[in-house]
TrEMBL record:
<feature type="domain" description="SCP">
    <location>
        <begin position="2"/>
        <end position="120"/>
    </location>
</feature>
<feature type="compositionally biased region" description="Low complexity">
    <location>
        <begin position="132"/>
        <end position="157"/>
    </location>
</feature>
<dbReference type="InterPro" id="IPR014044">
    <property type="entry name" value="CAP_dom"/>
</dbReference>
<feature type="region of interest" description="Disordered">
    <location>
        <begin position="124"/>
        <end position="172"/>
    </location>
</feature>
<dbReference type="Pfam" id="PF00188">
    <property type="entry name" value="CAP"/>
</dbReference>
<protein>
    <submittedName>
        <fullName>CAP domain</fullName>
    </submittedName>
</protein>
<dbReference type="InterPro" id="IPR035940">
    <property type="entry name" value="CAP_sf"/>
</dbReference>
<feature type="compositionally biased region" description="Polar residues">
    <location>
        <begin position="158"/>
        <end position="172"/>
    </location>
</feature>
Length: 172
């Protein structure tokens, strides 16, 4: 997934994102929640928001955004959906974001079966995993048979089974 995101950023003349495990953990938490509770929304089943999940994961952020999707079976399909949506494309091509975490969860007995989360962020005190860009991603697969004081700046829905949401820290 990071390779696909960075390929789109390179086409736009933007610098590559690097992975951050805290962001990957927040993304995994949300993808797993959506799959286990059979929904697709930026608000978690426990009422958590994007900014709360990122903060709970220990990431000190100045700017965060999230793309979620459900139903697309592979990276190429979900990236095509996101790149064909202005809000999602804006997150992927956000020049102010420096770090990335992603998660995919499959649940055969849920409505959409495939759940995707991308978390984008920048933070003054956060670093990249291994100090550089990486192609790793957080991926969880769960099959039942196998096993704010933040300011909301954008939220939109589109017909592709995807949504996007962004937050910025309030000015201090």
């Amino acid at each position: 997934m990071l390779d696909a995101v960075n390929a789109e950023r390179a086409k736009a003349g933007l610098s590559a994102l690097c992975t951050n495990q805290k962001l990957a953990n927040a993304a995994a938490r949300h993808s797993k929640d959506m799959a286990e509770h059979n929904f697709m929304d930026h608000i978690g089943s426990d009422g958590s928001t994007l900014s709360e999940r990122i903060t709970d994961a220990g990431y000190s952020w100045t700017m965060v955004a999230e793309n979620i999707a459900a139903g697309q079976e592979d990276v190429a399909s979900v990236m095509e959906s996101w790149m064909n949506s202005a809000g999602h494309r804006a997150n992927i091509l956000g020049a102010d974001y420096t770090m990335f975490g992603t998660s995919y969860v499959f649940s055969a007995q849920s409505k959409y079966r495939h759940y995707w989360t991308q978390d984008f962020a920048s933070g003054d005190t956060e670093g990249c995993d291994n100090g550089s860009s990486s192609t790793s991603q957080s991926t969880e697969q769960t099959q039942q048979e196998q096993s704010e004081n933040q300011q909301e700046t954008q939220s939109s829905n589109d017909i592709n089974g995807t949504t996007t949401q962004n937050y910025t820290s309030p000015s201090t």
